[in-house]
Structure formats: C-alpha cells, structure tokens
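Supplementary Methods S3. Complex input for the fe (ii) ion-bound model.
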Amino acid sequence: MIYWGDKLWAMWEGGHPHQLVPETLETVGPDTLNDLLAADQPFSAHPRIIDGRFVNFGVKGIASQSLTIFELDEQGNTLKQSSHPLSGFAFLHDMLVTENYYIFVQHPFQVKGLPFLLGFKTIEQCFDFNPEQPTKIILISRHGNHDLEILETDSFFGFHHGNAWEKDGKLYFESICSDFFPQKQQEELDFEQSDFESFPIGELWEFEVNLSSKTVVRRKVVERGCEFPSVHPRWVGKEHRYVYMSVCDSSTENGPLQAILKLDKESGEQQIWSMAPRAFPGEPIFVPHLNSTQEDDGWLISLVFDAATHRSYLTILDAQDLNNVIAKLHLQHHIPHGFHGSWIPKVFLEPSEN
Ligand SMILES: [Fe+2]
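Predicted complex, serialized as structure tokens:
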C-alpha cells in the first residue's frame, strides 16, 4: 500500500495499481495514472522515493521482456520515463536508486512460459534457477544516456534490496542474498508443513561496484536469516549508517521472521527485539521524528501477528533503543499476515466522538 500524489494504491508487479479511497479503503479500481500506463504495462510494488521523487518500474513480457522506469513528482505528474529491452529472463521484484543511477539485480533464471500461458502452472513454477550462471547488476543512468550497463557477480537470489549510494566514484548497495531460489512445486505448497531447513537462508550483503574497472565485490554484513531491509526515508540513495530488518529469532538456524534488528554499520553493533516464540512481525517501517536531524531519531512500526491470542497488534518501538517499546496497539481480531506496509504523516479519519 502506497500513498502518492493524493492517491492510495494497492500495488503488485503484474499489472496496474488498484486505487482505494483512503477514508473507507473502498476499491476505486485499476489506475492507469492518467494513461501513463498502457494496458499491458505493469507498475511494480517496490517504488523508491528519493529527494521528493517517486521512482518506479515495470517489466513487461515473458519470452521477450522490456523494463520501463518512471519518475513522478509529488503531485503524481510524470517527470521521466524510459524503456529498455532486457536480455535473458528477468524476475525483478525490487529496485534501487541513487542520485545518478537506477540499479536492478537480475538473478540467473531461465523460464519455460508455456505451462503458465496455458494456465497449468504459476509463473513462479516455470522459473528455473541456474546457480552456474552469474547474477547481473544492471545500471542505468538517470540522466541523458539511458543505455544499460551490465556487470556480473556471483550467482545468488534475493527479493529485496536495502539502500544504494555513491561514494568516491563507486556505487554501493545492499541486498538480501540466498544461495538459490526456493522453488516449490504445486503439490509441495503446504506452508503449514514448512521445513525451514530446506529453505535457503537470506542474509544481508553489501555490494561495491567499481564503475571504472567494471567489477563487483560483495561482503556479508549480517549473518542471520533476515528480510525487508529499510532505512530512514531521507537517506534513500545516500550513504546511511542504520539498517532495520525483520530477522529470525535464532542467529544460527533458519526459521520464520520473529524479531526486528537494527544494524549500526559504523560500529557493527546489532540490537534485536524478539517476539518469539509465538509472535511474527511484518516489515519494520521507519517513521522519523518531526525535524529530526539524527538518522535514528524516530520510531519503528510493525504489524505483529500474535499466535497466542490469534490477534494482531501494531508495535511502535523507539528506533534509538529497540527495547524501549513505546506502544502496542491491540486489535480485537487478527489481520492476515502480510509482508509490506508504509506510513505517511497524514490523517484521513475524523476523531471518533466515542
Ligand atoms: Fe516485496
């Protein structure tokens, strides 16, 4: 769910966003963004907001794919749009942006699309991950020359990226990396029977891209199962100090995400707030204090499902000290467990008389 240009959108990577009424959450319907999106043009669920600009992308096609990138201003008007043919099959779930670059990570997949087109399999079941092939880092300039530059690195898979930044003529970014794609066949999709040992563990890595020598090196930053990295919104595209993520309760074994971690990249210190064994947080969202100047001056909010009570609550943590729980806002029912969320400093509902 993302609110931009006075519109609330429910987004996905396979098509247009669905517009909702913020006050009632009533569905308005698919939104073409004033005809910016052609009928077959997807608009992904992972935009990045950098310096007041909404940057998003969509990948069209299966056998032959094209990548389109959009930049919108704060009113939702189109500032830029560029399209690029892709080679090989690209499953692009997330993107990164810096002052001068769009960055995409293309993992080594092959696709046999016919069973999907005939309706026998989901598109995900038609992917084949090839660990013998490199992962490609796709760089596209945000200014002028829109040619793709493709660099190669080790084979890995990952859905989500952290942040990206430029420093001393190099590009840096973070991504959650696992050794392979956790492919499951239809008959194995019983998630109540999940064997976490059979899933690859996703950990946070930092990539350094040398733009002169065209080389990529990567190093592991967090050795623990983790997902959904986020930073202070004002640091998107800039070198940051703190990363927040959902992580496994165990530091050594794979498992469901049951804790929230704050990483201080400068000191290497990690702070963990765990809800194990019965509760499960969604992604942590950083909400800055008004007029904050320090990067961790704010709150982390996360929607937690508590299996012990079969109810959900919204937790608010002090981002400077995760053990300082500011509030738990308890609901009287559960909310189906999800992945992502967002926060904006705007109130849509009038306070209730009661
Ligand atoms: Fe996602």
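The mean pLDDT is 93. Residues 1-86 form a domain with the Thrombin, subunit H fold (CATH 2.40.10).
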